[in-house]
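In response to reviewer comment 3 from the previous cycle, which asked for concrete evidence that the modeling workflow produces usable outputs, we include below a single protein chain processed end to end. The sequence was submitted unchanged, and the resulting structure tokens are shown without manual editing.
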Amino acid sequence: MQLVAGSKIGPYEILGALGAGGMGEVYRARDPRLGREVAIKILPADFSLNPDRLQRFEQEAHAAGILNHPNILSVHDIGRLNGSPYLVAELLEGETLRGKLEHGPLPQRKALDYALQIAQGLSAAHEKGIVHRDLKPENLFITKDGRLKILDFGLAKLTQQDVPLAEVTHLPTSPGTEPGIILGTIGYMSPEQVRSQQADHRSDIFSLGVVLYEMLTGKRAFQAATKADTMSAILQKDPAEISQIAPSISLPLVRIVQHCLEKSPEQRFQSVSDIAFDLQSVSGISDTTAQTTIATPHRAVPLYAWQFLAAIGILGAIFFGILYYRINSNVIDVYHASVEIPPKWSFELHAGNLALSPDGKYLAFVAVSDDGKKQIWMRSLSHSSPELLPDTEGAQFPFWSPDSQYLAFFTPGKLKKIKIGGGTAQTICEVPDGRGGTWNQAGIILFAPQPYSGLLKVSSAGGQPEIVTQPSEPTFSYRWPSFLPDGRHFLYLDFNSNTPGLYVRSLDSKEAKLLIPKIATNIIYAEPGYLVYFNEGNLMAQPFDADKLKIMGEAFPMLQEKVNYSQIRGLTAFSVSQNGILAYEPEEPTITRLVWLDASGKEVESAAGDTYDRGPGFLLWNSPRISPDGSRISVLRWDKNSQKYDLWILETSTKQSTRLTMDRSVDDIGIWSPDQSEIAFTSNRTLLVKTFNGAADKNLIQENQDLHPVSWSPDGKLIFYNRQNIRGDADIYEVSALGNEKPKAVVATTNDEQVPRISPDGKWLAYRSNATGQNEIYVCPFPGCNRQWKISNGGADVEFWKRDGSELYYQFQNRVMATHVKISGNEFQFDPPRFLFTVPRDTTIDISPDGRFLAAEPVLESNQNFLGLLIHWPNTLK
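The workflow returned the following structure tokens.
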């Protein structure tokens, strides 16, 4: 039956045909009563030949019509035209999901978005007792504004012939042409549909898993040479591993798909409400009432429980109420959850660790805002959103009192504490640049006062710190102390001595015992008897007897996903409460490229032969420096075996690389001498000069504080570096490149001054200072530095000169700026800074003699901004 424009069906005026197929014709029409356009689907006439089928169609069409949800196609009306049933629905503009999948797999974020909308629509239908039974990409429509609509509710069960299973070879050859008979569509059916068994709402859950699998991989989960083979695969086989097809897909999302695709309905999620919560957890998608969600329970919450909770409302509070109940009850399910970082803030491991309160009620973490502000955020696990903790600006490395009433943290020059629930921060003692602390039941705080030092103790009420343990050499570092349950023994990391690793000792003894050698990360004791630490990308748990101070077994991974690690700090972001909660920062895989950029920031070519690599959250290339004639590059390269950076030399013409340093020391940026015969760099707080003519290395300085060489004077006589002071800030020094004079302070104030770059003519020194309260670039005359010109305005991170001295460049976050320099006598004149181009965050740049930029540029594979939680983690080890 074909209708022409201008004809009518009941009150509806036909405007034109939209399509036709085995299931009937679809027309665009206008409803003059409401002044809106609609879609009318006229079903085949043979529906009217079976009164039972026609009655069932009308009943289920009426049922579909009562669904009112933004993710379900709205059904407005039904009727008959010359015996043929028709259905009136909202008019959609866009394309089906099948159309989108013809171009390949979807990005994870987009697939999550669509899957969540499907789950929300199905949830609304299932609550009304309506099951779709034919969920597939052809029945999922994406509107132009990104809204997903589920089509043909209630029809799949009715629009088929009653064909026995033995006759499945007569099914249509194209699975997308029409719904498969009572079984659904081949490839998207649940096992119970294949067996012609009763299919309830859990059948839709299986089909949702199949659709999500296809969105993520671009391949069908079940597809074989024949229909019978496909159905056999649904019953007996698992689809190919997602990680083999799309390795970038996050593990929690893979688990959701696997849980949907369980062969037995009893083993799947028991409601799509569960799936929706899990998808929100993985994707970070949240509404105004639910911002953190449970992901992938080992045993699903019963459907009636979620229906009851949904009826209560305020889903965010409900989630954390459930979470808190499960944490503090005898329920032993293991749950994953995520905590979103607030918009315009990011968690950065260099800024500090995670800190779960011992009672498991709060999670504290340090985040950095887009404008560089650093502060502690507090998340109550009984509420849905984090809050800024007042009076914690500049904080890092927080840790809790054993009663969970106070949070201690370091700020530049101080160790402070603040009472949870109100009050201002109180100073406990002066500390240069803390590297971790721990608080026992007797009110003793044990802490590392700076990166290279021993451990001190102080009363939590305040007072003068006392030395507990001191390394034998000033270049050795003890850090990240952690009390054991008795409050007297403690763990700590020996970061870079001759025998590095995890040690245990007592406040009452000078004897130290090596527990785990060659470990270079923070480590804590967690009940019921494990040491938790990072090793080769994994968070490990190792059985440990805290009374006998003895390791009792082999270590094994706590998570299937990797976690982030900072080689510079020797720090992994994780924390454990006393009641079985693990908080951690999932690894965000990073690829880095060493590339040449033109003056507009456009990539010209690769600068290295082996540009790409993967590491445990690290940059492969970092901090490149181009030689004066542009023929060679010194660059830091991450070594996976030694888990540290080494200096390498790259030939710009051949892109061949040669390793310059290979000892176990932690090496820093290498700067060229003007004649290119030497490179200066630091190794374990020692300033070294390495020659290329075979002469012995020169040891210029060995300091008790961190130091970083930045530039070499054009006459070859001086090396400029910044050195950390006792307050934890830095000052700028010069030292003779011959090593025959003591270092001299160049810029040393109460502010933080770093990155000294001498101009090509040797007369002007550019540097960074926080004199105004934020980092900016300044220039002063050299020698003397008796005047300053502020170059930047609005923030700056690092600066460098054009080789002829006519331009001064600087970076601020992802922006590269430039100012034209004009010298008039003793006056430093410059134009207002101008924007050049943007680069990814954390890019390090240098400029070549020909004016090209060399960038060590991280390319992020994901843009995660959340922290992970694992509830009842000890049960994963059983």
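Residues 328 and 579 are 8 Å apart (CA to CA). We consider this sufficient to address the reviewer's concern, and the full set will be provided in the supplementary archive.
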